Amino acid sequence: MSSSREPRTQGSSGALGLVLGHPFDTVKVRLQTQTTYRGIIDCMVKTYRHESLLGFFKGMSFPIASIAMVNSVLFGVYSNTLLALTATSHRERRAQPPSYIHVFIAGCIGGFVQVYCLAPFDLIKVRLQNQTEPRARPPGSPPPRYRGPVHCAVSIFQEEGPRGLFRGAWALTLRDTPTMGIYFVTYEWLCRQSTRDGQDPSPARVLVAGGFAGIASWAVATPLDVIKSRLQMAGLKRGAYRGVLDCMSSDHRRLTYVDSDTKTIGGNDTPKDDSGLSHFLQTRGDSLRECDLFLA
Ligand SMILES: C[N+](C)(C)CCCC[C@H](N)C(=O)O
Known about the structure:
mainly alpha, binds N-trimethyllysine
């Protein structure tokens, strides 16, 4: 980073960005993994109707608690890699800016390393965001599979083992390694464009450069983000996908069906031959049709 302000503010600005962005992230994750929604507006309307505004904030607490740590690993590894590559300290760098190829490599390495802190938190976030139970559950309706982030972490650990907590981490690595490189190159380039040589960019410029760097990196990251979210949700069904390539080429609608243990529903394709299930569906009606994508 060419600004010395960045490390001090990254914790709180990261958390603020997260609260503002989380409702959109929830809509994104649901559209990536569930087949019940026709589009963004449909997903927003249904979420609001069934779960109220709070539905958009499901799964937010662990990311808030971990963002400072994940970002300090990212920026720490980035800075130290850049230091090793260019042999110039943070101060000297203002007079002697690092080359873009060094910025890219340092960004990729930072992105690669932070994945191993981010992966378990991101997995729990995605699982909780996909729980579409309403705030006030009708009497007799099944409880959500996970009661909260800690229960979710413990359940995944018990049901899927420690490696279960890293489900989707390989796709996350493929998503973040190159795109963090893109993030830092775009950020550096925009800061240098808008600032005279040897000076620190103003806070407003840092904000704008960071925003555009985020857009550029997300534009590239989104396809692998879809795969990552699907692999994370498919965790409960062993063998649902054989890996990243299999997930890329399979029709994900075939995997959305009712979980017989929890009676939660994913997607719109439900098995036709289960009469108990169709009775269950008829009696539960539409509200359960929007329910969780949990694969048995
Ligand atoms: C993929 N891309 C590089 C664009 C952004 C990665 C964002 C990672 C972030 N720390 C998080 O909490 O998810």
